[in-house]
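Colleagues,

Please find the record for the two-part complex below.
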Amino acid sequence: MSDLPKEIKIVEEGPREGFQFEAGPIATARKIELIDALSTTGLKQIQIVSFVDPRRVPGMADAEDVVRGITPAEGVAYTGLWLNDKGFERALATQRLKVSGTITVGASDAFLKRNQNRTIKEQIASQHAITARYTQLGIPVTRGGMMAAFGCNFEGDIPVQRVVELVGEILAIAQANDVSLEYVSLADTMAWATPLAIKRVVGAVRDKYPDLELSLHLHDTRGLGLANAYAGLEMGVRRFDAAVAGLGGCPFAGHAGAAGNICTEDFVLMCEEMGVATGVDLDALIQCALLAEDIVGHPLPGAVMKGGALARLRAAKQAS
Amino acid sequence: MSDLPKEIKIVEEGPREGFQFEAGPIATARKIELIDALSTTGLKQIQIVSFVDPRRVPGMADAEDVVRGITPAEGVAYTGLWLNDKGFERALATQRLKVSGTITVGASDAFLKRNQNRTIKEQIASQHAITARYTQLGIPVTRGGMMAAFGCNFEGDIPVQRVVELVGEILAIAQANDVSLEYVSLADTMAWATPLAIKRVVGAVRDKYPDLELSLHLHDTRGLGLANAYAGLEMGVRRFDAAVAGLGGCPFAGHAGAAGNICTEDFVLMCEEMGVATGVDLDALIQCALLAEDIVGHPLPGAVMKGGALARLRAAKQAS
């Protein structure tokens, strides 16, 4: 027994994060192959594409074809990412994705300027407008999100108080539009978090909003991803984004080492070995990670697919 | 402020772990180049070679030449590793190393059988004999060490109680030979530890031996190395082994992914960003990690050397 959560939810973002980031072209059929394989692992939500400008992100130009090509599995929600109206309309037009709105803010003016050409205030204003529009269209708005919540390559440290205030802005936008959010996601977009920072920021948000469920989106650019996720578990966080094999990264984060999210299978091993249920079949997920390496054609950061699952070694020992 | 230790000691093991593990031959001069570079970073102890059978570990056949070739830096202790009398005599003969004895036990019969062809009991008996011999020769015995303290690929989970008992065996050997150990190192030789296991094992040893200083030697084979190190910091552990760039691994651990220790520069970044002083110049250490990659001729696991130090980004922001 421990004080860690009994179970958590993982949103798989490998296909979106990964295929968006890779330099070379990847065949649509192979993207579909990975998504269909991930659908059999027990993961309940998979972000499979982003609807972004194909001139800026050529790896996602085939987003519609990918969505059309998958074989949806019972009980799995497939989602896409968009950053503007055009992307939203493309997502809606597929008629195969779980489309729900996110109220997205950013904690760094400098990052927002580069990523979306807006200030923090302009971003907040835009979210009021977009939430109203979602509501008019009957699209549920279920999630808040904050980019660069732990620091920014272009702005440096982000004051904890700013994060708390921006959570308040998200909740105010939700309230003004009469929508009820399931959770708010704090993203360490540029990998500035440490375990101690996770505890401080999550703790400060909890102090102000004790009933708000939080999610963590942790990039592993400086190697601290799983340590940060563990600190999140210690704080009782029960929702995490992750990417199979450690696929991906943000192409606009401005550094060569823009590593992806925490690696899903490494995170699943850590959780399951500590008695935190993920609902994911680790062996099946490791096969997906090996498939992902085969698809991108180069080694990916995941460790467990090379080092092996412990449950397998235990079983081999018992059989011998 | 936090409850983490104010400062910690890092033993750099990259040259020994790394050059022992690499498949191809590495020029002696390049090994020396890395060791001399590490000597300028603020690291106070560097394990630079192992004195092992060159037929089993050809990468260490030039151990004496490496020791002879370095330019010792003031205040830096250089050490070597040995596993038997012959290795010990080779280390002593160099006359340039800090030679001190370790009382080494292993928590897994199956691992000891493969690694040293002994049972746990035979290993304990051998340590009584070797400690007596060190003492007769006037060699200080300063350290206890336990291999496979958190689990074993060939034996599975290791009961916490066995670890506590084996720490007792180490202390009994020390007492019987009238030597006073500085600390006992618990090694996660085959990467079975989770953060929760670190807390449980360290906690159980502390309960029984509250005044005993502990050290952690954490392999990163399953990606949990830094999360485990963070759990150690939370338990107040103040000594850690690490390997620059994540060099190395144990060639006898029996799996392809035998990754090395936690990466020194990633660990230093995590510590320094949390206010835990390491005494190490991170920028200088990153240069060493890049040098290590150049020397081995392939990418190494370290993340910060690709992702960049945060202090540098803060400074760039202030200058702009």
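The beta strands of chain B are 9-12, 45-51, 77-82, 101-106, 141-147, 183-188, 214-218, 239-242.

Comments are welcome before we finalize the supplementary table.
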